[in-house]
Amino acid sequence: MIATRTGVVALVGRPNVGKSTLFNRLCRNRDALVLDRPGLTRDRQYGRALGISDADVTLIDTGGLHDSLAISAAIDDQVMLAVEEADLVVFVVSARENLTPIDLEIASELRKSNTKVLLAVNKIDGIRGGSEFGVSEFSQLGFNPVCAISSTHGEGMHQLVETLVAQLPLLEPSHTQDATNNISVAVIGRPNVGKSSLVNALSDDNRCLVFDEPGTTRDAVRVSIEKDDQTYDFFDTAGIRRKGKTTDVVEKFSIVKALDALRRCQTALLVIDASEGLVEQDLHLIDYAIEAGTAVVLVANKWDKLDSPARLKCQEQIGRKLRFANWISVKYVSALKKTGIATLFDYVKVLYERGDFEVSTPELNEILQKITFAHPPPVSQRRLIRLRYAHKVGSRPPTILIHGNQTDRLSAGYVRYLENEFRSVLDLAGWPIVINFKNSTNPFAGRKNELTPRQQKRRARLVRHRKRR
User: Fold this and answer.
1) pLDDT tens-digit series, residues 351-379
2) What pTM, to 2 d.p., does this model score?
3) Is 361 left (phi over 0), alpha (psi -120 to 50) or beta?
4) Which residues pair with 46 in a beta bridge?
5) Which site among 91, 224, 374, 392 is 20 to 30 Å from 190 CA-CA?
6) H/E element holding 95?
């Protein structure tokens, strides 16, 4: 059996040196936000490096160290947690700027960490002297080896990958983890409702950056948690405000990342502030989740701040506003006190198993007959709408295809009736049901029945007879 190299690699450096661009190139995606603005990355962003033979590399993109932002201390803590977790640190510096005091300070901190360090001199494209200048300028930091790269254009990436892999520990392939059965969960909601605090409480770790300021989270940060032999991938996303209030380009990109994470996940935890109740923007987010075909759980956070009358009022308000989607379960939790969160794992797993939607075609047709018998489809333009038979076409979300005639004339209300009945009978609470329709075609449409010569003569005789009369 061939041994493979595996390990965790953290990308570390001061702000705006190209860590996220390097992360995206190694992962061959655009999971990390990239913009020519310092302080864009704040949380730890995890990804898997692709295209590296005989190596399984987990990358961590981190925020810029020693930034001038108000939350720089919290960002620095997140970076140092990534350094402690990593088998190797790639210290990224910029060749377009001279060696700065912050670079020297970071180098000193990395030496104290006892973690292997690989120096990557980024942005060598367009620099006179190119890689030679980059290596000579930053060699005084005392790290060896040094790789001169351009993460934007791909220069020097082959050397960086080879040097990086050579410093990772060996591991037998049998020890590698299979993530195909992971349950993916998107944690969504408006800004500052406690999404990151909830993920930290679920992971029992200071995994996501928490700060008393809206817009702290920008990327969709994946946090893997193992519970009872099941791995859950929670995606902590940026807060989604109303479109009219979203003006900053970074916030717009963050919302795109959040909605993309929602589409890729099987379950969505919609976090709301219990003291504010269910507001209009939360209802829009439920619509987004339903359109994405994601199972939905409403999580009312900060429950510990409410007294008994306020709790009763909150429950009544949520029940009233959720009448259009009463299949959504509501969980009342406190991420700060870690109360009520233990049941979330069990319920998410139950939803995942329900989403398999194991049902036979005969059983589905029997249910369809009972549903339509109890409440027949309406008549449209004096013509009956008939739903003849149904069969399953997909899972997560449960998807049903119904064949019939005049199905395009079914009202939205009757389609909702079908969805609710299927959900009730098949025990699919928590999932949006997707019902597609297919009209039966008339096999004789457009065909003309040609008369035989004998039939034509008989028709002519009848016509003459009628004229005589």
Assistant:
1) 999 998 889 999 999 999 999 999 999 88
2) 0.61
3) alpha
4) 60
5) 224
6) none
